[in-house]
Write a structure and sequence with these properties.
The chain has a 16-stranded mixed beta sheet that branches. Among the domains are: 80 residues; 189 residues, no CATH class; 77 residues. The protein is elongated, with a radius of gyration of 40 Å. It contains six helices and 58 strands. The two termini are 42 Å apart. It is mainly beta and 918 residues long. Helices cover 5% and strands 37% of the residues. Helix 4 packs antiparallel against helix 5.
Length: 918
C-alpha cells in the first residue's frame, strides 16, 4: 500500500453562536466555503469605536447576511487583528456592529470571515473514538505551530480545515481544496520566550462536543403518565401467591400483589384483592331459618345444633406445611359448647372447645396454626379462630384428613348433638359411624358423597341454595374459592358480609408550584418555580390562583411567571401556589385520561367505578365509612374490554385530580378475586409548555429536536433508516449530548459525529447480529505492525440486562447460570420490539465486556476511511503459528497528515465473537 500525499490549510472563522443570536453564522455553511474567495479590503478608514457604525468593504458579494469578520491591518507598531460581529448588510457595508477592540484600521486593510492561520508545523492529528457502548463516535484534532497570531487563537470560534490531494496521474494537486474538518477552537495555548518563537497549539472539537456540557431543560416525549410518581393503597391485597397461580396472571413465584404494582410498567406485576367478589346463588336475608336446607329427609339438619360446616381447606400446595389447613363453621346460635371434631377414622381432632357471643350468621374458624392462618388470610373477618391444644408441640389436627377420601363430623354439648357432617371422595358413612359407637350420630349424609378436593389449593364448600337438591352432595362443591370468615355476596348464609367493596386509591403528585422570589403589594408579575426551576407548567393559560389567603386573578401565563392584576398583599419566596378550581383550592395536576391496561388472564373486571377528587388534603377511602363518597367531585362507572382494557376520558371540568378511587363492581367470571393489571394517569399536555414537549415520538424526530436545542439546524442532522417510536419519558435537565447518547443506546441507534460536525443517526444491527460481516480485512502485507494485548480472565460473572418491550419491563440474564468468577454486571435498559432479540444483544454485550484481546496496528499506507464502530478482520501469523483470523470492533483510530502524507493507526480494537460463558 502507498501513502497518499496531502496538503492542508487552517482558517479561523466567526464565533459559534445560537440561531437566535443577532450575529449568528450558520456553521454548517463552513464546509461549502472557499475562504480566500471571501477576502475583501476596507474601502475606507475604519475608525475606532464608537465612531464607526459600519464596516465599508470593497464588496459584500457572497457574504453571509450576518456573522463576524476579522480585520487585519499592519500599522508600524505591529499587526492588528480585530474580530467584529455584524447583524446585517447594507450595500457594501457591514452594519449593526459589535466590536471588542478599540482600534482603528486603515483603508485597504484585509477583511475576511475566515482568516487563514499561518505558521502551522505541517502536522494535524485527528483522533476518533467510539464510547464503550458502541453508540456514539466522535473526534478531536490537534494542531500546533509557531509565531502565534494571538488574537486569532480564540476559543469558541469556528475552525475550518481544508485539504487537497496530490494527483499522481496529472502530477498536480488535483481538483482543488475541499473541507477536512469543521469544528470549534478549544483550549488554545501559546508559549513564548526569549527566542520569540511564540509556539502555539490548540484542539479542534466538533460542535456537539464543544457544547457537551450545555444543559437543556427536560424534554418530554409521548404521554405523561404520572402513575410512577404516585402512591397507591387498596383493600387487602392477596396475601399468598399460590392461591392464584392456576390463573396464569403472573410468572414469578411470589411477585407480591400490592396496589403499588399498578403504577409500574413491569409486565409481571398486578394487584389482586384478597377477598372474592360475586357469586351465582341468591342471598338469604337475616331472618330466615333455612327451611329450604331441610327439604331432603335425613340431611344434616341444623335446626337443633345451630351451626353448619361451610368450608374445608386441607389440600395445600406442595411444600406448604399442614399448619395452613382450616375449616369454617357458620353459626345461628350465640354460643358453641364443648365442640368435638371427629375424623373418618374416629379420631377426635379437637375436643371441649367453646365460643361465646357469636352474632347471628357469625363465622368460627378452626385451624392448625393461628399465626399461619392469619398471615394467609389477613382480612378473614371470623368471629373467633380456634386452634388445637398442643399445637406448639407440633400437633397438626388436620393431618388425619385425606383430600382424596374422608369425612368430618362435628358434635357439641357432649355426645348428644351432632351438628354437621361432610363426606367426600366416596367415604362410607356407615364405616365412619362404626368407628365411634359412643357418640350419637343424629345427622345422615344421604346419597352420594361430595367430590374430593383432589387438586392442590382446592376447597370443599357448602352451597346454601343449590338448585333442586335431592341428596347430600348437591349441597357441596369443590373449587379454588375459599372465603374464610366471610360470605360471597351471592352465596351467603345471612346476606352480604358487610365488607367495603374491593377498591384501589391512588394519590397523585401535586403541581409543586411556589413563588420563585418575593413579591410586594401591587405586583403585576408573579414569578413561579417548581423543583426543577422556573416553571408555570400545569396551570391553565388564565385563571385564579391562591397564595396564603389571597386569591389573585391572572390573565396570561409565561414560561416562568404569570401576568396578574395588582396584588393586595406582599408574599415571600417559597409560598405555595394553589389553583382555584370549581370553588375549591387545589394543587392537583390536570389529568385528561385514565387507562386500565388489558388483563393478562381471562379474569377481568366488567365494571369499574371511577371517583375523582381535587381536594389538596386527600380523600377518604371506602373502609373509612360511607361518607367517603362526599370527598369526590365526580363518580362514574366505566366498562372494561377484554382487548383494550378500560379508558376514561376525564371531562374538562373535573381534570384536576389529587386522589382517584377505583372500585371493581363486577367481574366477567364470578366469583373470583378482583384484579387490575396496570393503571395509567395521563396528564393534559395543553397545560404544559409545548416548547419542551416533543410533538412526535419517532426517535429520529425526537433526537433532531434535542440537537436543535444546542444549535443544530436541520441541514446539520442526517437520519436514515426506520426508527422506533420512543416510550413515554421525561428527560432530566441535562446536556443534549447525554440525552442523545442515552436515547440512542436504549433504542439501539448509532450516532456518528462527522468531521464536518454534522451528526448522523441510524439504527444499528450490531447488537442483534450474532455473526458479523467484516467491512475491512487486514493482512501482514497491509499492516506495518500489529499488537495484541491479552488482558486475561473473565471479569463478568453474569450480565444483568434490563429491557422493555411495548412498555413492559423485564430483566435478561446471561449466561443463564452465572460464572463462578467475576462480578454481576448490570446493563441497559434497552427498548426492543421483541424479547426474542435479547439473546443476541446479551451475547454481544458479554463478548464486549469479556474481550480479552485488544488489537492495535499501524496501517501500511493511507486508509483515510477507517472509522470507529466498524467490524474488521485481521489475519496474522504470530511467530511460526499458523495464520489466524480474528474479528475486531474498532474503538479508536488516529489519522495524521504530516510531512504531506496521510498515516492511519488503529489505536484500539476489541475482539468479538470469541467469549463464551464458562
Amino acid at each position: 500500500m502507498s501513502y497518499d500525499a496531502y496538503q492542508f490549510q487552517v482558517f479561523i472563522g466567526p464565533k459559534l453562536t445560537y440561531p437566535d443570536s443577532a450575529y449568528h453564522f450558520d456553521w454548517n455553511l463552513a464546509r461549502t466555503i472557499y475562504p480566500p474567495a471571501l477576502v475583501r479590503t476596507l474601502s475606507g478608514t475604519l475608525a475606532a469605536p464608537p465612531t464607526a457604525s459600519s464596516v465599508p468593504l470593497s464588496s459584500t458579494s457572497s457574504y453571509p447576511s450576518k456573522g463576524g469578520v476579522w480585520v487585519k491591518s499592519t500599522p508600524a507598531a505591529g499587526t492588528r487583528y480585530e474580530y467584529i460581529e455584524y447583524g446585517g448588510l447594507s450595500g457594501n457595508s457591514l452594519v449593526n456592529l459589535f466590536r471588542e477592540e478599540g482600534w482603528s484600521h486603515a483603508s485597504g486593510s484585509t477583511v475576511a470571515p475566515f482568516m487563514e492561520l499561518e505558521g502551522d508545523n505541517g502536522t494535524i492529528t485527528v483522533n476518533e473514538t467510539i464510547d464503550d457502548t458502541l453508540t456514539l463516535s466522535s473526534w478531536s484534532a490537534q494542531i500546533a505551530g509557531y509565531r502565534a497570531p494571538e488574537s486569532l487563537l480564540r476559543p469558541g470560534h469556528i475552525c475550518l480545515v481544508q485539504r487537497r490531494k496530490w494527483d499522481t496521474a496529472s502530477k498536480s494537486w488535483g481538483s482543488g481544496w475541499s473541507w477536512l474538518l469543521v469544528g470549534v477552537v478549544q483550549n488554545p495555548r501559546i508559549q513564548d520566550d526569549a527566542k520569540r518563537a511564540a509556539n502555539w497549539n490548540f484542539t479542534i472539537v466538533p460542535v456537539l462536543d464543544y457544547r457537551k456540557n450545555t444543559k437543556i431543560k427536560g424534554v418530554r416525549v409521548g404521554n405523561f403518565d404520572v402513575g410512577p410518581n404516585s402512591s397507591a393503597q387498596s383493600s387487602t391485597p392477596l396475601a399468598v401467591a399460590y392461591k392464584e397461580a392456576q390463573n396464569n396472571d403472573f410468572d414469578a413465584a411470589e411477585p407480591g400483589f400490592d396496589a403499588s404494582n399498578l403504577l409500574t410498567d413491569e409486565a409481571d406485576k398486578l394487584w389482586i384483592n384478597n377477598k372474592f367478589l360475586g357469586g351465582s346463588n341468591p342471598s338469604l336475608n337475616g331472618t330466615q331459618e333455612w327451611p329450604h336446607v331441610h327439604s331432603v329427609t335425613g340431611f344434616n339438619n341444623t335446626q337443633y345444633a345451630g351451626y353448619l360446616m361451610t368450608q374445608l381447606y386441607i389440600n395445600l400446595p406442595a411444600g406448604n406445611p399442614k399448619g395452613a389447613a382450616w375449616m369454617e363453621l357458620t353459626c345461628y346460635v350465640s354460643q358453641l359448647t364443648n365442640l368435638r371434631l371427629v375424623a373418618q377414622n374416629g379420631q377426635e381432632m379437637i375436643t371441649g372447645r367453646s365460643v361465646q357471643d357469636i352474632p347471628y350468621g357469625g363465622k368460627v374458624i378452626i385451624c392448625d396454626n393461628l399465626e399461619r392462618f392469619e398471615a394467609e388470610n389477613p382480612d378473614h373477618g371470623a368471629h373467633d379462630v380456634l386452634t388445637a391444644e398442643g399445637r406448639e408441640s407440633g400437633i397438626n389436627i388436620f393431618n388425619v384428613l385425606s383430600p382424596s377420601i374422608g369425612g368430618l363430623a362435628i358434635f357439641s354439648r357432649g355426645t348428644g348433638i351432632q351438628g354437621s357432617i361432610a363426606l367426600w371422595g366416596g367415604q362410607s358413612y356407615a364405616a365412619m359411624k362404626a368407628t365411634r359407637t359412643d357418640l350419637t350420630w343424629s345427622r345422615v349424609f344421604s346419597g352420594a358423597t361430595a367430590a374430593a378436593p383432589a387438586l392442590t389449593g382446592q376447597t370443599l364448600r357448602y352451597r346454601f341454595n343449590p338448585p333442586a337438591p335431592t341428596q347430600g352432595n348437591d349441597y357441596w362443591t369443590v373449587d379454588y374459592i375459599h372465603t374464610p370468615g366471610y360470605d360471597l355476596p351471592g352465596n351467603s348464609g345471612i346476606g352480604s358480609s358487610g365488607d367495603p367493596p374491593p377498591w384501589v386509591q391512588v394519590e397523585l403528585p401535586g403541581l409543586g408550584l411556589e413563588l420563585a422570589s418575593n413579591i410586594s403589594a401591587n405586583a403585576t408579575t408573579i414569578p413561579i418555580k417548581d423543583a426543577s426551576g422556573p416553571s408555570t407548567n400545569g396551570l391553565p393559560t388564565s385563571g385564579t390562583i391562591q397564595i396564603g389567603t389571597e386569591q389573585i386573578n391572572y390573565s396570561a401565563k409565561g414560561e416562568e411567571s404569570l401576568t396578574c392584576s395588582p396584588t393586595a398583599q406582599p408574599h415571600v419566596a417559597g409560598d405555595k401556589i394553589y389553583l382555584l378550581e370549581g370553588g375549591t383550592i387545589t394543587d392537583a395536576l390536570p389529568i385528561k385520561q385514565i387507562q386500565f391496561l388489558p388483563a393478562r388472564s381471562g379474569i377481568r373486571p366488567e365494571l369499574i367505578r371511577v371517583s375523582l377528587s381535587r381536594l389538596p388534603g386527600g380523600a377518604r377511602r371506602p373502609n373509612e365509612g360511607d361518607g367517603y363518597i362526599y370527598d369526590y367531585q365526580l363518580i362514574t362507572d366505566i366498562t372494561y374490554s377484554a382487548l383494550t382494557g378500560g379508558v376514561y376520558n376525564v371531562p374538562a371540568a373535573n381534570r384536576r385530580i389529587k386522589t382517584a378511587l377505583f372500585i371493581v363492581r363486577s367481574l366477567n367470571n364470578e366469583p373470583k378475586r378482583p384484579r387490575l393489571q396496570q393503571i395509567k394517569l395521563l396528564v393534559d399536555r395543553d397545560a404544559y409548555d409545548q416548547t419542551y414537549w416533543a410533538a412526535d415520538p419517532d426517535a429520529s424526530l425526537f433526537l433532531r429536536d434535542v440537537l436543535s436545542r444546542v444549535g443544530y439546524a436541520a441541514g446539520s442532522i442526517i437520519t436514515s433508516g426506520t426508527f422506533p417510536d420512543l416510550e413515554s419519558q421525561q428527560t432530566a435537565t441535562t446536556s443534549a449530548y447525554d440525552i442523545l447518547l442515552d436515547t440512542a443506546r436504549q433504542y439501539l441507534l448509532r450516532v456518528s459525529v462527522g468531521w464536518d460536525s454534522r451528526v448522523t443517526i441510524t439504527p444499528t444491527s450490531f447488537w442483534t447480529t450474532i455473526t458479523h460481516a467484516p467491512a475491512v480485512y487486514w493482512y501482514r502485507h497491509t499492516l506495518q505492525n500489529a499488537s495484541i494485548q491479552k488482558r486475561g480472565g473473565s471479569r463478568v460473572k453474569q450480565m444483568e440486562i434490563e429491557y422493555s418491550t411495548a412498555g413492559a419491563s423485564a430483566t435478561y440474564y446471561y449466561p443463564t447460570v452465572a460464572n463462578r468468577d467475576g462480578t454481576q454486571t448490570p446493563a441497559g435498559p434497552y427498548r426492543v420490539s421483541s424479547a426474542g432479540l435479547m439473546s443476541a444483544i446479551a451475547i454481544n454485550l458479554y463478548s464486549i465486556e469479556t474481550a480479552d484481546y485488544v488489537f492495535s496496528a499501524d496501517v501500511a499506507g493511507t486508509a483515510s476511511t477507517v472509522r470507529p464502530g466498524e467490524i474488521h478482520a485481521v489475519t496474522w501469523d504470530w511467530g511460526d503459528q499458523e495464520d489466524k483470523q480474528r474479528k475486531f470492533v474498532i474503538m479508536a483510530v488516529e489519522h495524521k497528515i504530516t510531512k504531506m502524507h496521510w498515516f492511519t493507526k488503529i489505536g484500539q480494537a476489541l475482539q468479538i465473537e470469541r467469549s463464551n460463558p464458562n
